[in-house]
Write a structure and sequence with these properties.
Blueprint lengths: L2 E4 L11 E7 L9 E9 L5 E12 L5 E14 L4 E8 L1 H4 L8 E9 L7 E8 L6 E3 L4 E2 L4 E8 L6 E9 L8 E8 L4 E8 L5 E10 L6 E10 L3
Parallel strand pairs: 10-16
Antiparallel strand pairs: 1-8, 2-3, 3-6, 4-5, 4-7, 7-8, 9-11, 11-14, 12-13, 12-15, 15-16
Length: 231
Amino acid sequence: MEQNTIEKCKSPCIYEELAGEFKLISVREIGKDVVLNLSIRSLTTKPKQVNVDIKASSVLYTKKEIHELLKESKTICVPGCEGTEVPVVITYAMYEDLLTADNSIEVTAVCTCEPYDGLLIIETNVVLDNPKFEIKLNKKVNVDKPVEVDIIFTNPLDKEVSNIVVTAEGSGLLKDPVSVTMHSVKPKETVTIPIIIKPYKAGLKHLLVDFTTNKFQNAKGYLEIEVHEAK
């Protein structure tokens, strides 16, 4: 969610002269650079020189800051009654090992402009999507009969992923969660990770799968499975 924070100030106030917002122009995918445009508009005919301190941090869902990813200062010239856009780039190398399990990045710009009083604070939150994987089942499923489910993953990153842990669970399908580990997957490589389930109840069930590596955490997927009575 993006928001502008207005600081109390004496007249003339900065928020009567300027407005701003962040615009995300890149995809929200882990492994890709996060690219935003910071747009600052003059609300009057007077041109302005705006000093901007920009900061990006990995945060929890509570907005508690965990790691600082980017910190930079810029001076932006804004024509009267017009807007100026400045790119803000958070490269994958900046955040690849510093994200929380929430995949959330908070970006803040603090703007000052003489002779106006106060601060204009512009904020946005970018939540990145985990890589996808496929859950595949090719056989009819019966109660008390073991069956293999395949987890198919193609590494979309330009880096090798390692310390892979795949965990499956599902009421009626598994009495306890089952975890399978794998050492590593090279960039663009596709792997198939088999998991054996032994259903114990008939009916429509849901297999829930969690996929975690050293580069991303808790990617989720599920598969509906119709379990038939044993014959």
